[in-house]
Amino acid sequence: MSRILAIIRKEFIQMSRDRLTIGMILMMPMVQLILFGYAIQTEVKHISTAVFDQSLTAESRDLTDAFRASGYFNMNYAATSFAEVTRLIDSGRAKVGIIFPPDFAKDLRRGGPAAVQVIVDASDNLVANQAIAAANSIGQVKSQQVLVQKYGITVGQPYDIEVRPWYNPDGISAYYMIPALLGAIVTMTMVQLTAIAIVRERERGTLEQLLVTPVKSHELMIGKVVPNIVLGYTQITIALLVGSLVFHVPVRGSLLQLYLLTLFFVTASLGLGIMISNIARNQMQAMQMSFFVFLPSIMISGFMFPRDAMPKIIYYIGAAIPLTYYLQIIRGIMLKGIGFSYLVGQVSVLLVFSVVFLTIAILNFKKKIA
Whole-angstrom Cα distance, residue 351 to residue 70? Predict the structure, then answer.
């Protein structure tokens, strides 16, 4: 028993010396429970909506107010044409478009049905399902109110809510999940493998052997990054082939643009992995830090749960994750068929991530070997 107690005491002493690992083990569950407890919401409200009101009457404004009062729709954009509604939905700035025809009020006064077109971005299944259900429910409730107030009856449908799901009209979950899984797989591989590979070389002493050669630090970093970029593109190619051949996920946009824009995401993920490798002192720490990055990337990037349903603070934390922007890029190109002109903002953010992460990683690496 005395020998067992001695071993136990030794282990506790060793654990207390590795404060970084102990801190991560103790803090990670608390931080992630708080973060994800607030972030994971399946009921989506305040969906960004564009309204194209060609009627411009009290009746159209009344129905618009009903959509707004439901809490499910935020009237963020007042469009002046159908083309503008299309651009807003294509770019992702609006998830829903509500279009009133010029004769809306006239049809309603005649007893209906007064048609209202509701366009829903169905590339996001959860948001689309909530929006479709809410729009149909609002149409039914308003119809009942009009019938009771004007005619004293409850049979009929003065409002005809015509819902048009775009991009994924059949609601096929594979169309929504496969592009996201592609981004998640690349994140996990690029961040974790890069972080662990560099730490492993430091532990084995092979990194010091490289440093005594004429190779400069930035040359060493580039040499480490390029093979991983090739690995990332190999993964993407395999995933696209499987998604297309097995799950029949369409690629409606330019495959060339998808490959080109993916470079910014891959380099941002690699930069993050190299930053972790500079902080971690051993492979276990590198794995824990990589997991701490990977799990939020899954939970609050829009991979599985809609970001529109998250509290503002969680929404802004998600904006600091590269996968958030890549999901918009890959879903936009594959499902919507949009191009670079709609994705400039997302690409710019990923470029900033790449430059910042790689610069910090190289500077820290120089500092360590100085």
Answer: 39
pTM value is: 0.81
Beta-ladder partners of 117: 99, 162
Phi, psi for 56 (deg, rounded to 5): 50, 50
Hey, what amino acid is at 366?
Answer: K
Q: Average pLDDT for residues 331-344, to the nearest whole number?
A: 91
List the domain range (segments joined by +) for residue 337: 172-369
Give the side-chain half-sphere CA count within 13 A for 199: 24
Q: Read off the pLDDT of residues 103-119 as tens digits, 9 standing for 90 and up.
A: 988 888 877 688 899 99
pLDDT in tens, 69-82: 988 899 999 999 99
Contacts of 186 (CB under 8 A, 6+ apart): 232, 235, 236, 262, 265, 266, 269
Residues 156 and 278 in one domain: no
Same domain, 332 and 358: yes
The answer to whether residues 153 and 184 belong to one domain is no
Last residue of a domain, one of 103, 138, 166: 166
Give me the sign of the Cα torsion angle 275, 281, 284, 289.
negative
Q: Which of 120, 146, 166 is the last residue of a domain?
A: 166
